[in-house]
Q: What sequence folds into this?
């Protein structure tokens, strides 16, 4: 046991007491969070430009209002006032001082819309695009393919960003027959398409904003043709009304006998927190397994392993190294845990810290580190160069990253078949299970226990297999073994790997 | 220890896949001796050493080390200096020596580390990182790592490689000092003159089999002097025909003759004196090098 502790302590020091570890510890969250902030940062570096959009309005009713909406969006964008941006994101949502040509009913409708969360897309899209828009009206009369081609040429030359074709029949009344209402067809409410022609992407900000804005104008215009201007604002208001579904916890009887609802996590807790927890688990695994790979590779290539094996058995060596590695991983957890807690308290989110997850997190973390570090050790023991290790590690990384590929699905439906299955797959369990638990959803206890037992079993067999590969590979030099050979090592008790050495030629 | 043996191997065999690395090996290393392990590359030397260190377990036979015939790792009483240097580059010298000593269960090792650093003129390096040391310096540190836990059995694999003559002498004296304390030393080397100078007994393994084992005197007596070195005076006639010589070869100013029986030397000398003045006539005893080469070449014959 003394030997194991001696090895563990050296391994721990080699992992933690290095400049590289401290830098990685500081840099990792910066990189992770930087990934989220980078788009905004890059957008800040972008120079705003004026994007000219031509509009062919066959209805002859929508252009001027579309123009107003766009003008106000531009004004708000120049002022960079996010609070007002929400309003300007919606077309025609203005106050009276900013408009000159509008009817009383329009003014009333604007007020109505400004009070409502009408189209969430328009609201979100308002100031995402930093570019200003400028409209050019193209006469709709006799608009033909020649003109379409000419506009397209202008787009190619960069004179124009896009052109929009609004068909005349988009405002045509389409009364619903009783038959329609009885058996509504899927496309019953669909209107003729407004065409967007541009070289940009299908999901460009300009296109999405224009679509949302145009849709609201069309709706308002269609209603104005069949509803009295006096009642129109009321009708619109009624149509736009929304009730927010507020999440509530299950009801329980508390100690004083009262029936109370358990606290239910809000959006931050159920989206951001699980992601942070999952990333923390990922960082811990990565920061533990990678040094283990380098450590074993150093011991192998510099023939330190031979000296060590002259003093301790392969089992003791591996156990000591894993123990030191787990200690290092717990240091990472404590460092991030303390840092995260401090920040949460500073930001007033102390009550959001998921204290109940911590014991599970630590248990899963230890198992994950044992599993992945031992597999990384086995791989390092089998090869002689980092390059060779990389090719063997590729499939392993895919397994490590599996929960990250589907994290959003898991967060949305923490008790779905997908989430449950992935969290029962031992290599994915630590990340997937803590992710599920962090959402605040009620995970059946049996699932926690079964996944823990499966992970303990998986880790046990993983460590045993890795130990056998480690024992066979650590003194081997030269060509790395093939997968099949490594598998035979796993099932072999005795040392049957030829200790190929560079000086073995007679 | 069994009787007076530090190491005893009985009918030991070891295979790797289809390769028989060591076959049916018997060996007994007396306690307190300096025992040379010689053999060509890939002959089974390293495998034998690793079995003594318990890094490998034999497939058959018994390996008894310092009285223990089983175990899954080297006894803490065994020190090992491998041929390839195994030092953590980023560790400091004292820190590393302390680690190796503690792995051997030797906790209060600082006085011993200081002693050896001073003994080998390496005191100034104690706080230096291994990666800053030269090859010779690293070699000395590796040696200290092997002896710092005061082993009863010390296995040295090519301990002098990479050392200049001054440091070689320093290390040789250190080894002899350790031996004088009663430590048994196994000495694996390719340098036959070193083996001849330092070892009391020599063991040679070739193709997994023991081909030599005994004191230098015993080995030499098994390989009688059968080579003559001759130089005739300048005015002497040409070398006469020598029917007793199996093989004759001119090497510089000397003629070397191989004879089947050393007694034939007298007849050859008689023939030479009849032809003129003999300036040099010597019956050469085979060196360990010659014996090594002879066995290795014989073994290499198809």
A:
């Amino acid at each position: 046991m003394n030997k194991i502790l001696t090895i563990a302590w050296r391994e721990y020091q080699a992992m933690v007491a290095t400049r590289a570890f401290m830098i990685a510890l500081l840099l990792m969250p910066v990189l992770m969070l930087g990934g989220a902030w980078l788009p905004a940062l890059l957008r800040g570096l972008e120079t705003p430009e004026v994007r000219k959009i031509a509009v062919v309005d066959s209805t002859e009713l929508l252009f001027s209002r579309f123009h107003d909406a766009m003008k106000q969006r531009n004004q708000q964008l120049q002022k960079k006032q996010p609070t007002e941006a929400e309003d300007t994101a919606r077309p025609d949502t203005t106050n009276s001082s900013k408009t000159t040509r509008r009817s009383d009913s329009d003014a009333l409708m604007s007020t109505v819309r400004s009070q409502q969360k009408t189209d969430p897309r328009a609201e979100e899209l308002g100031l995402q695009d930093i570019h200003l828009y400028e409209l050019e009206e193209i006469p709709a009369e006799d608009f033909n393919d020649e003109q379409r081609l000419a506009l397209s040429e202008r787009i190619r030359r960069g004179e124009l960003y896009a052109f929009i074709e609004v068909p005349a029949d988009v405002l045509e009344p389409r009364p619903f027959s009783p038959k329609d209402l009885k058996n509504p067809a899927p496309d019953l409410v669909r209107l003729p398409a407004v065409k967007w022609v541009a070289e940009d992407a299908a999901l460009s900000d300009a296109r999405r904003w224009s679509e949302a804005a145009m849709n609201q104008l069309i709706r308002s215009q269609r209603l104005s043709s069949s509803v009295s201007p006096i009642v129109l604002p009321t009708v619109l208001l009624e149509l736009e009304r929304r009730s927010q579904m507020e999440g509530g916890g299950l009801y329980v009887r508390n100690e004083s006998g009262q029936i109370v609802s358990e606290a239910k996590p809000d959006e931050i807790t159920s989206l951001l927190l699980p992601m942070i927890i999952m990333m923390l688990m990922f960082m811990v695994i990565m920061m533990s397994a990678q040094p283990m790979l380098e450590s074993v590779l150093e011991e192998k290539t510099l023939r330190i392993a031979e000296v060590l094996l002259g003093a301790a058995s392969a089992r003791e060596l591996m156990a000591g190294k894993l123990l030191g590695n787990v200690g290092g991983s717990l240091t990472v957890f404590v460092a991030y845990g303390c840092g995260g807690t401090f920040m949460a308290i500073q930001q007033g989110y102390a009550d959001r810290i998921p204290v109940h997850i911590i014991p599970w997190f630590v248990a899963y973390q230890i198992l994950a580190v044992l599993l992945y570090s031992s597999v990384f050790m086995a791989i390092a023991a089998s090869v002689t160069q980092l390059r060779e290790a990389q090719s063997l590690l590729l499939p392993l990384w895919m397994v490590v990253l599996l929960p990250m590929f589907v994290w959003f699905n898991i967060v949305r439906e923490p008790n779905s078949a997908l989430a449950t299955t992935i969290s029962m797959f031992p290599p994915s369990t630590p990340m997937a299970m803590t992710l599920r638990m962090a959402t605040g959803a009620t995970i059946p206890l049996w699932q926690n226990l079964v996944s823990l037992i499966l992970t303990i079993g998986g880790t046990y067999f993983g460590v045993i297999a890795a130990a056998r590969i480690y024992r066979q590979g650590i003194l081997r030099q030269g060509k790395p073994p093939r997968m099949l050979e490594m598998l035979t090592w796993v099932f072999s008790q005795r040392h049957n790997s030829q200790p190929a050495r560079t000086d073995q030629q007679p | 220890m069994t009787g007076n043996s530090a190491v005893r191997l009985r009918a030991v065999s070891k295979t790797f896949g289809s390769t028989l690395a060591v076959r049916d090996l018997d060996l007994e290393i007396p306690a307190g001796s300096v025992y040379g392990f010689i053999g060509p590359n890939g002959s089974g030397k390293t495998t034998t050493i690793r079995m003594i260190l318990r890094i490998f377990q034999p497939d058959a036979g018994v390996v008894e080390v310092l009285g223990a015939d089983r175990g899954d790792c080297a006894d803490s009483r065994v020190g090992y200096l491998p041929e390839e240097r195994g030092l953590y580059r980023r560790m400091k010298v004292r820190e590393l020596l302390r680690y190796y000593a503690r792995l051997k269960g030797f906790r209060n090792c600082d006085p011993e580390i200081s002693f050896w650093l001073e003994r080998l003129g390496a005191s100034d390096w104690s706080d230096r990182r291994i990666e800053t040391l030269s090859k010779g310096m690293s070699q000395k540190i590796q040696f200290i790592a092997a002896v710092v836990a005061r082993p009863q059995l010390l296995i040295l694999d090519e301990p002098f490689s990479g050392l200049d003559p001054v440091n070689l002498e320093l290390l040789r004296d250190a080894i002899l000092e350790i031996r004088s304390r009663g430590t048994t030393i196994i000495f694996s080397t390719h340098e036959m003159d070193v083996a001849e100078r330092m070892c009391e007994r020599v063991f040679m393994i070739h193709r997994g089999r023991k081909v030599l084992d005994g004191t230098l005197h015993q080995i030499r007596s098994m390989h009688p002097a059968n080579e003559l070195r001759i130089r005739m005076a300048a005015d002497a006639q040409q070398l006469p025909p020598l029917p007793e010589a199996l093989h004759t070869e001119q090497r510089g100013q000397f003629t070397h003759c191989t004879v089947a029986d050393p007694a034939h030397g007298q007849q050859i000398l008689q023939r030479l004196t009849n032809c003129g003045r003999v300036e040099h006539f010597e019956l050469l005893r085979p060196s360990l090098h010659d014996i090594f080469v002879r066995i290795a070449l014989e073994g290499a014959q198809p």
In short: The first strand of chain B starts at residue 5 and ends at 16. DSSP finds nine helices and 13 strands in chain B. The mean pLDDT of chain B is 84.
